């Protein structure tokens, strides 16, 4: 496909200093001298990073301000350096811990291992990390701890004032993940009780003013009993980046297939441009795997034009080995193409990128409280994201960014900023976490951006029906507290609790583990027939959940063999994760007093347990429907069974689903057939007001 490129008029502005608020500008007099730590070459690298010039300034501000907001371009060293500076300055003395949060699991692992390497220590000792279901820390030794914002939120359930931390750095705050937003509100409360706790809010873009206003309250007087006096006013520091100029190119006409357009653009760059790696932004595992495969095939079979080109995928859920490949330097004479989700937009920095190809899309969550459906959809990114993506090309030398959309579209149609996740998500998990932390008036909570009252009401309704909240909207005992304690979607947690009375907890724990990962199937385009045939070997008439049980049993019987997985088109890495998660869920279940019992072949019990968790997602097939159309019982939305489900084309009369993905239609993922009478049995309040539904 031919592409016509024209250079853009606007230079990407990576940092807009005018938004500074109480901006601290430090002269070079503040530059710190070498601290003489660690190994020489790594030390040199560290000193070359833009934040290094601000080392003393940062330490001074953290010492004298309860909250410090640090804005700096991606790659300037915020995440990897600041925790080390704090440690060197003694913030982790006396057994205290420095925490640094990230919205993404993969970023947590990557930065923790990088920092451990820079400090020359073993990961899991002085430097560790915790993500859900994986704790690589040592209670006595760990001084710098990277963790997801979600995990820190969970830690508050056991330790509401987060007393083991001296400094908490909320990183990637511009991403405005749900957990970041909730944390910021809670940390502001904690600071009132623990003024000595220092907060650092690090962000790649300039929402600094809004953040600063959020942390400013009228009666925040300085604490003068300490020396120097501690200011409760937030400080803002802007780290000047050293990004090189990035030339922007736009397509002249809109493209219809951005995967194909991205691939041709990669070829074009490889043909015409000097050496330097390429970063391509696509949206999800499917299109990324497809693009990687096509680029590599072309390089293998193709003529001289593709020689030296190799592509690697980057998305969450990659194994450690796959992650390492991405970060390892490109061999001489080769050109690396990393095809990524928006994880490479700001969370991770790859060295050597000179060219960026931006599809203009990312996968985003959207929740509609009217239909009560949460979708993951491919949606246009914002201007702010587009600028971040372009900036990734200017790390090592002047770069180029190819936008697969027109300049007209960028200027006139792209929205300036993204919408915070809290305003486009289902709030069931959020509400239960706040309730568990004793925040009763959720609408009155100090939100950075308020969620919609409709979404809140929907969440309360579901939690009430799940038996998690009582008439006063307080957590019920024990069910509410137990559901809150299990680190899973409340619907999955409720399913686990229900399995206790139904004597099928062994089976349901396996199902819960599978439902909490992306997919156990190996996905590859072009071999659909083989994959479908393989799936049939495990397919259960009841639906996907029981099919998962069959796969799990097969995997155990094979001795957890990777060959067996390969043969059956099952993702080995996913299955290993399932086994690990299941083991942890088993421990949590035991702690909650759930008796581990198997129902053997009685799949009625399993179906009932699933219904007890997911009754809100019940659907009924449209009578006389010839194309498998279902309607949701609650809101009469049109939905279809996803082609990847074993119930695709089987179309039982009644089903419940786990989630919806939306492409040309709204598709239900992870579907099981149910007995409709169990709906009124497990959730009488929820279905009573509907009148007769059967
Ligand atoms: O947080 P920020 O985006 O400001 O930068 P950072 O993540 O601290 O990265 C600073 C530098 O560390 C980058 O320029 C990379 O060169 C390097 N780095 C790396 O090589 N490997 C990693 N896994 C993480 C960072
Ligand atoms: Mg960072």
Strand residue content: 15-25%
Strand tally is 23
Overall domain count? 4
| Bound molecule types | cytidine-5'-diphosphate, magnesium ion
Distance between the termini: 53 Å
List the total number of helices: 25
**Sheet with most strands: strand arrangement:** 2-10-3-9-8-4-7-5-6
CATH class of the largest domain: Alpha Beta
The name CATH uses for the topology of the largest domain is: Rossmann fold
Unreliable sequence segments: 10-39
Quickly give the structural class.
alpha/beta
The named CATH superfamily of the largest domain: P-loop containing nucleotide triphosphate hydrolases
Rg over C-alpha atoms, rounded to the nearest angstrom: 26 Å
In CATH, the architecture of the largest domain is: 3-Layer(aba) Sandwich
Main sheet, how many strands, which sense, barrel?
9 strands, mixed
Task: Bin the helical content.
Answer: 25-40%
The pLDDT mean sits at 89
- The backbone outline, from C-alpha atoms, is globular
InterPro entries: DEAD-box_helicase_OB_fold, DEAD/DEAH_box_helicase_dom, DNA/RNA_helicase_DEAH_CS, HA2_WH, Helicase-assoc_dom, Helicase_ATP-bd, Helicase_C-like, P-loop_NTPase
Domain Helicase C-terminal: 264-438
GO molecular function: ATP binding; hydrolase activity; RNA binding; RNA helicase activity
Catalytic activity: ATP + H2O = ADP + phosphate + H(+)
Which secondary structure elements does this structure contain, and how are they paired or packed?
Layout: E1 5-7, E2 23-24, H1 40-48, H2 55-64, E3 67-72, H3 78-88, E4 97-102, H4 105-119, E5 127-131, E6 134-136, E7 144-148, H5 149-158, E8 165-170, H6 178-193, E9 198-203, H7 208-215, E10 235-239, E11 246-251, H8 258-272, E12 277-281, H9 285-301, E13 309-314, H10 320-327, E14 335-340, H11 343-346, E15 353-358, E16 361-368, E17 373-380, H12 383-391, E18 399-403, H13 407-412, H14 428-436, H15 453-465, H16 479-485, H17 490-501, H18 505-515, H19 528-536, H20 544-557, H21 562-567, H22 572-591, H23 603-614, E19 618-621, E20 630-632, E21 638-641, E22 654-662, E23 666-673, H24 677-682, H25 684-688
Parallel strand pairs: 2-10, 3-9, 3-10, 4-7, 4-8, 5-7, 8-9, 11-18, 12-14, 12-15, 13-14, 15-18, 17-22, 21-23
Antiparallel strand pairs: 1-11, 5-6, 16-17, 19-20, 19-22, 20-21, 22-23
The structure holds cytidine-5'-diphosphate and magnesium ion.
The site of magnesium ion (MG) has 3 residues, from helix 3.
């Amino acid at each position: 496909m031919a592409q016509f490129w024209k250079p853009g008029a606007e230079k990407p502005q990576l940092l807009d200093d005018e938004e500074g608020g109480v901006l601290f500008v430090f002269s070079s007099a503040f530059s710190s001298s070498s601290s003489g730590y660690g190994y020489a070459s790594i030390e040199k690298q560290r000193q070359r990073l833009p934040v290094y010039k601000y080392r003393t300034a940062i330490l001074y501000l953290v010492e004298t301000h309860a909250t410090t907001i640090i804005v700096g371009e991606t790659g300037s060293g915020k995440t990897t350096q600041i925790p080390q500076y704090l440690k060197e300055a003694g913030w982790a003395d006396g057994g205290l811990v420095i925490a640094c949060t990230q919205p993404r699991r993969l970023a947590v692992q990557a930065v923790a291992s990088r920092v451990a390497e820079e400090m020359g220590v073993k990961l899991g000792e002085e430097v560790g990390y915790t993500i859900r279901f994986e704790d690589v820390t040592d209670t006595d030794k760990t001084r710098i701890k990277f963790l997801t914002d979600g995990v820190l939120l969970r830690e508050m359930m056991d330790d509401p004032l987060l007393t083991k931390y001296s400094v908490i750095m909320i990183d990637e705050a511009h991403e405005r993940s749900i957990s970041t937003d909730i944390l910021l509100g809670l940390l502001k409360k904690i600071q009132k009780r623990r003024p000595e706790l220092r907060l650092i809010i690090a962000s790649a873009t300039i929402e600094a003013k809004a953040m600063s206003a959020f942390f400013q309250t009228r009666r925040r007087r300085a604490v003068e009993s300490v020396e120097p006096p501690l200011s409760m006013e937030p400080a803002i520091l802007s780290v000047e980046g050293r990004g090189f100029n990035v030339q922007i190119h736009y397509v002249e006409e809109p493209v219809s297939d951005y995967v194909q357009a991205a691939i041709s653009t990669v070829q074009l760059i490889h043909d015409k441009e000097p050496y330097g790696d390429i970063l391509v932004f696509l949206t999800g595992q499917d299109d990324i795997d497809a693009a990687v495969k096509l680029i590599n095939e072309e390089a293998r079979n193709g003529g001289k034009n593709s020689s030296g080109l190799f592509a690697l995928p980057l998305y969450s859920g990659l194994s450690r080995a796959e992650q390492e490949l991405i970060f390892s330097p490109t061999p001489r004479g080769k050109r690396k193409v990393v095809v990524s989700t928006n994880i490479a937009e700001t969370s991770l920095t790859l060295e050597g990128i000179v060219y960026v190809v931006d599809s203009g899309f990312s996968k985003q969550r959207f929740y509609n409280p009217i239909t009560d459906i949460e979708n993951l959809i491919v949606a246009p990114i914002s201007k702010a994201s587009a600028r971040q993506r372009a900036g990734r090309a200017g790390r090592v030398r002047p770069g180029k960014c190819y936008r697969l959309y027109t300049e007209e579209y960028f200027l006139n149609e792209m929205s300036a900023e993204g919408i915070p996740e809290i305003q486009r998500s289902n709030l069931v998990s959020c509400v239960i976490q706040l309730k568990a932390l004793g925040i009763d008036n959720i609408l009155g909570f100090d939100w950075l951006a308020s969620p919609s009252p409709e979404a809140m009401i929907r969440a309360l309704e579901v939690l009430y029906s799940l038996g998690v909240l009582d008439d006063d909207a307080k957590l019920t005992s024990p069910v509410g507290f137990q559901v809150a304690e299990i680190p899973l979607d409340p619907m999955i947690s409720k399913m686990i609790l229900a399995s206790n009375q139904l004597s099928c907890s062994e089976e349901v724990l396996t199902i819960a583990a599978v439902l909490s990962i992306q997919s156990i199937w190996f996905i590859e385009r072009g071999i659909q027939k083989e994959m479908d045939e393989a799936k049939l070997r495990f397919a259960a008439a009841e639906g996907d959940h029981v099919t998962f049980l069959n796969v799990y049993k097969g995997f155990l019987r094979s001795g957890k063999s990777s060959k067996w997985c390969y043969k059956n088109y099952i993702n080995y890495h996913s299955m290993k994760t399932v086994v690990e998660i299941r083991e942890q869920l088993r421990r949590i279940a035991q702690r909650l007093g759930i008796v581990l019992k198997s129902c053997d072949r009685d799949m009625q019990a399993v179906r009932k347990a699933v219904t007890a968790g997911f009754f809100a997602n019940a659907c009924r097939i449209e009578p006389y429907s010839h194309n498998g159309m279902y309607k949701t019982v609650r809101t009469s939305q049109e939905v279809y069974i996803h082609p990847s489900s074993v119930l695709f084309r089987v179309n039982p009369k009644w089903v419940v689903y786990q989630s919806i993905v939306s492409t040309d239609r709204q598709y239900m993922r992870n579907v099981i057939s149910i007995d409709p009478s169990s709906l009124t049995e497990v959730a009488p309040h929820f279905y009573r007001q509907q009148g007769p539904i059967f």
